[in-house]
Amino acid sequence: MKVLALVSGGKDSCYNALLCERHGHTVVALGNLYPDDPDVEELDSYMYQTVGHTLIKAYSECTGLPLFRKRIVGTSVEQGLVYSGSRGDEVEDLALLLMYAKEQMPEITAVSSGAIASDYQRSRVEHVCARLGLVSLAYLWHQPQSLLLKRMIESHIDARLVKVAAAGLYPSKHLGASLADVSGHLHHLRDFYGIHVCGEGGEYETLTLDCPLFRCGRIVLDESEIVVAVEDSMAPVAWLKPISFHIEWKDGEQEGVSEIFEVPKEYSGEYIQQTLDDGGPVAGVRVEVEGGGEHHDGAYGSCHGYCVKTSPDLRFEEDQICQAFAQLLSTMKEKIERMGFTLDHGVFCTLFVSDMAYFGRLNEVYAHFFPSVNPPSRATLELSGDSSILIAVHVLCTNPRYLHAVERRVLHVQSMSEWAPSCIGPYSQATSYNGLVRFAGQIALDPPTLTLVKGGIEEEVARVSKTCSLVGAAMKLEFQSTMLWSILYISKDVVIDERSIGTLEELFCSHDADEGSDEHVEEYLSATHPVVPCGVDLPMLPFVMVLQCPRLPRGAMIELQSINVGADILTYKAESDSSDDEDHGGDTSNWYAGLEYATFDEPDCLEVHAMYCTQHILKMNMVHSSGGGTMSNPVGLEETLESIPQVMDSCLSMARLSVKNVAQVNCYINTSLSGHDGFEMLKDRVNQILKDMGCVQAFTIPTSGVWVASHLTRDSSIFGIEVFAQK
Length: 727
Description:
Elements: E1 2-6, H1 11-22, E2 26-35, H2 58-63, E3 67-72, H3 90-104, E4 110-112, H4 119-132, E5 135-137, H5 145-154, E6 158-164, H6 171-174, H7 179-193, E7 204-210, E8 217-230, E9 237-249, E10 260-262, E11 285-291, E12 300-309, H8 318-338, E13 346-353, H9 359-367, E14 377-382, E15 389-398, E16 408-411, E17 430-433, E18 436-439, E19 445-446, E20 451-452, H10 457-474, H11 479-482, E21 483-491, H12 498-505, H13 513-516, H14 519-528, E22 543-549, E23 558-565, H15 567-570, E24 606-613, E25 617-624, H16 637-654, E26 662-670, H17 671-693, E27 699-703, E28 705-708, E29 719-726
Parallel strand pairs: 1-2, 1-4, 2-3, 3-10, 4-5, 13-14, 21-22, 26-27
Antiparallel strand pairs: 6-7, 6-9, 8-9, 11-12, 12-15, 13-15, 16-17, 17-18, 18-23, 19-20, 21-23, 22-28, 24-25, 25-29, 26-29
């Protein structure tokens, strides 16, 4: 990609631009924002470093690249973590800078920034990039700071301290010192005072005088003066103000070419939001929508829908599929809003498509209906071909009546980085709500390139496991030890045998310290103080349903969608044991205590696994486990169907719940065994049973295989049912 590198003068922005080139991108321009008053050296800004801004013009000559600059006229109007866009905010200065640069250089498709740990800065850059159709590149994001500082120095980044504001950093001694000179001292201060060695806590700021990106020349600071803002014997605040400097040319360069473009004061750069015309119904496609809010009494509401072919023989073009999808989402949106919910507060979305080749175009349609800021997490799969369903969507939403008391937290990192894969669609990596953390479906993407890792199922399992650990760390969780249940999607390319089963189980087993140690995870976990279950006897394998699909995104072999217990539950009376407490009301109803399996032997063709938590959570899996049965010879199928109400009522009662607390029911039918007619029969029969119970209707999906992980060696079941209920 052609990249505009945002440069403040600091080490981070310059090093990230260098990493962009190492990852195969081309930096074609620089961008800088500076104080409206040129006499102001240190601007009170939440977004931008301005100390040393008078030297930034020299960056164009040193790099040989055009430099776009804009004065900062806005202020920090929106100071919350989530930025929605406000006139007069300093973030809009960044938007205008990038708009203007893109007008002058239309080839620019990506933006480089040096965010390491600040969600405030990263999310605002991502917000602007999303508005302008640009890709955010933030390769420093969540990198271990000690390692990052070492790599900067080894990469010959000559950055000097130009501001100090921490205990142990003194103006006369440390201002003007290079990173290499103060690295040891910074680590000493980290051990003694707990500072961030890369200055992420505002301990210091730097000005880069030379780096490999400076191909034409380096900056030599001739004269400077120290400006002390806060006199303090322990932690003075001061900065270095450059007075004069010159450029020392490299490798025979006589003089660099300076191309500096100032954004005109009158430039408005109005952004026009694209609109979507769904074009109305598609001939031959029927839209079906079911909502669960009418029956549900709890923290969630749900809605699901389908685009269904009216005849199995009909074929559709991609544009028609997208048009039908838009109509489906529009109908679902209206239904959800009539129920008193909103897509803006979605928790999780499951999207099944008839052909994964439509993935990119369908993402564009999807983005018009879900919020660009903190959208719900999502999993995307391909439907089995033996049904008339073109698209199936399920959305789980928060109940707005509970939002004042129950926080919805979202991890939505859109920047490409070396941390974990950015979202390849308009969804979030993880969403936390009401004590549970729902992870987006994770496939084995290499974070800096977003390409699928090579090496087969072993490498994919290793990459997915690492990604989940990193995302979990960002949500203040240790992933394996907090996993409650999950769905493991496998492609048709995965052969179920002893070798693959052993490999897949690695996703759910905690690793030994020597095997699973990762510097990224360890540093972030130690910094965020995550919590893990105390005294909880977790099963060897979490609660796992395994589904086989024809294809997964990017041709992946596996996709893992996990639900974990949240940090807010684990930290609440974590050391207490209430498993023997008969009364789970009052305060004690709001913490996690453990898992319990219940297996019902009557009828013997129904296998039930149920989990209960003292937080009033029920998760149960039911599978018709008569191995080898088919729809032409459905051994015990009728008995299984007839037993569903009794088993559900029994499990709900054990969890002190009722059918009104059921937020979601998923039904997965193996169409390789059932066929098209069997799928339709089972779908209608299960939904009639649920309707008679007064329960939400099932989100019913055709798959190529259905298992519970504990019996992955068995022949696939004909169908499996998931039930989720929570007060």
